[in-house]
Amino acid sequence: ETLMRAPNAFGPGPACVVCHSSNDPAKSYRGRDLSTCDGIKAGSMEEPKHALFEAGKDPKKAILGRRLRNNRMPLGVQFNVPTDSPQIIAVRDWIQDGAKNDDNFKKNILKLFNTDNTFGENTPACSQCHMSNQEPPSFHELNLTTYEGIMLGADSVAKGVDHATKVIIPGDPGASGVFQHLVEDRMPPGIDPTEDRDHPNTQIMFQWVKQGAQCK
């Protein structure tokens, strides 16, 4: 919990407890109390409640890990840009409805990934960085220019097609990497996206979780 109380603990920015210091949603964003060990383990108390990690497991892809490591996309989008814009809601609903390759996808969804300023002012199209299954030039070998590329996922060359990291989980936007990156800001707020994602203190926190997240 000492790390949560310290400014610049995970990169330049305020201490986590500046915004997350109570399990009362009226006082603390999402009802997250990061000022105590028990609060850290409890996670978000605002409905729907969410734990930040599962003790004993690698938290890299859990909420805690994503918030400390993953930059919100498109790269450079501002921290205060709403996460419920019509464009983001359209992506969410498409995933929720099964992520089909239907007329809605072809006419309304695909273009969202291929148009500048779709998810924030002065931001590039997603496909500017994710345009093929080869890296370079495409980050994480992710192709957001076609339905097949989107559904194949990331790192299909490095890991093999059968083991590619799926970025769309039909029916589950919350578990889909594309949606996570559109709505989840990296912490602390305003951190430069070029800051090291594997900060030493982040690794200390992850190790604590993997070892069982003991409070004493």
Largest sheet: none
Rg over CA atoms, rounded to whole Å, is 18 Å
Weakly predicted, low-confidence segments: none
Give the strand tally: 0
Residue-averaged pLDDT? 97
Q: Which quaternary structure do these chains form?
A: single chain
Query: Which descriptor suits the 3D outline?
Result: globular
Structural class: mainly alpha
Kindly describe this structure.
The protein is mainly α and 216 residues long. The longest helix is centred in the middle third of the chain and has 11 residues. The protein is globular and about 55 Å long. The mean pLDDT is 97.
SSE diagram, text form:
Layout: H1 2-5, H2 37-42, H3 63-69, H4 86-96, H5 103-109, H6 147-152, H7 156-159, H8 177-183, H9 200-210
Task: Record keyword descriptors for this entry.
216 residues; mainly alpha; 2 domains; globular
